Fold this sequence. Notes:
The protein is of the alpha+beta class. The protein has one domain (4-67). It is built from one helix and four strands. 21% of the residues are buried.
Amino acid sequence: MQDSKIVEVDGIFIGAAVMLPEAKGWRFVSADIRASQADGCTAPTLADAQVLAKRAFLISRCRDAATARVG
């Protein structure tokens, strides 16, 4: 059975990190469009997978804020 861990940023569920078979690392599965750039990315550790996902989410959120129209 595979192990998985929830990945969230500021209380927002952005996806899950799923352990790959035979301890070959972790894969991020996106549940939020803002983290989709990291969807399917693999990392050697759970912490690394979480960092990849959170960076993708935060970069997307910053990009959205920068391009939002005022008024």
